[in-house]
Specification:
The chain is mainly alpha-helical. The chain is built from 16 helices and five strands. The longest helix has 29 residues.
Length: 344
């Protein structure tokens, strides 16, 4: 080896590959107060899993709630608080997610107004959600609900929106409005996509979809005894009247909950139900124990959070500040694209 070779500096190491850039997700719920296990399993569990993979904006959409609550919005404050408590107790981390109230970021309303110029009334009246409820809700606010929803999403340039299939048309509308704006003025918006996830079917005590409006739900904040009482009254297979009668677990909402909360339900619950060895009373007691056990950590965190309302409202204030920073940045681009940045 020559002297030159000995003194030749070692080659610089190749730079490490850049970490993949996180995409953004916008999720929201109307503030209906304390949530039930249908909300927990249908949305919150998924949000908690996604918060490590995406930049998350979790929005309590109080303006949307006005479509039904416009006569008495005084209940919204308590409903917002209870919803925020449930989100945090379920594992939404305000260090990873901006958790905020929609009306505290006024840019939602501004972008809604701009988007409303880019869509026709017939397009809105053809949406399934309008057709389903137009006889009960006939305000402009209800008609324009999907436009405000599109603004909620696009205001943060969200790439994905975790929703069920019933919201597919609304995400399509948000993507269409983003595309129309980009084509009319200048490219500003990401065209969002629905992030469909497998949402477990959660049925209530009457075998209909679990809902507060049906009064068939199991609240997250229910006590162990309250949960037991609700489950005792649950609908079961009508052909299974007493222990010994063979049952069909696939027709039973109790078994659907077992599949979520009971390990090995397919081997330990379904077979003895089918033979009649497992009666409905014992089946419900097993579910009660497992459900209460699964909810215990959430309920404990919930009790502590309710004692600290200032902490919860501070989380929402901090989240709104973070959301406004993003929203204002996007709206500045909107103003420039539309040549409405008059002072520049």
């Amino acid at each position: 080896m020559t002297v030159a070779e000995k003194t030749k500096p070692a080659p610089s190491p190749s730079p490490a590959p850049a970490a993949p850039k996180k995409e953004t997700i916008l999720s929201g719920m109307q503030p209906t107060g304390a949530l039930h296990i249908g909300n927990l399993e249908g949305a919150l569990r998924n949000w908690v899993a996604l918060q490590d993979q995406y930049w998350m904006y979790c929005c309590i959409v109080d303006w949307h709630a006005l479509t039904a609550e416009w006569e008495d919005p005084s209940r919204l404050k308590e409903n917002i608080f209870q919803m925020a408590v449930d989100w945090l107790a379920a594992g939404i981390d305000p260090e990873k997610c901006a958790v905020f109230v929609q009306s505290e970021v006024k840019e939602h309303a501004e972008l809604h107004l701009i988007f409303s110029m880019l869509i026709t009334v017939p397009t809105l009246t053809r949406l399934p959600t309008y057709a389903e409820k137009k006889d009960q809700l006939d305000s402009y606010g209800f008609l324009g609900y999907p436009v405000l929803q599109a603004a909620d999403i696009c205001l943060y340039n969200a790439h994905k929106v975790p929703v069920g299939k019933d919201q597919e048309k609304h995400i399509w509308l948000a993507a269409d409005l983003a595309k129309r704006f980009n084509a009319t003025y200048k490219k500003v918006f990401v065209e969002p996509e629905a992030l469909f996830t497998k949402i477990p079917l959660i049925l209530g005590a009457d075998n209909r979809k679990m809902s507060k409006s049906y009064g068939n739900h199991i609240p997250i904040d229910a006590t162990d005894k309250q949960t037991e009482k609700i489950l005792k009254g649950y609908y079961t297979d009508p052909a299974k009247l007493r222990k010994g009668d063979p049952g069909n677990p696939e027709k039973c909402p109790v078994y659907l909950l077992h599949q979520i909360y009971t390990p090995h339900a397919k081997t330990e619950i379904a077979p003895p139900c089918k033979t009649g060895e497992l009666g409905c009373v014992d089946c419900k007691l097993k579910l009660t124990a497992n459900l209460n056990g699964a909810l215990a950590p959430i309920r404990e965190r919930r009790v502590e959070l309710v004692k600290k309302p200032d902490v919860v409202w501070d989380v929402l204030a901090t989240g709104a500040q973070r959301a406004r920073q993003r929203a204002q940045n996007v709206m500045a681009k909107v103003h420039t694209a539309m040549k409405m940045d008059y002072r520049n």
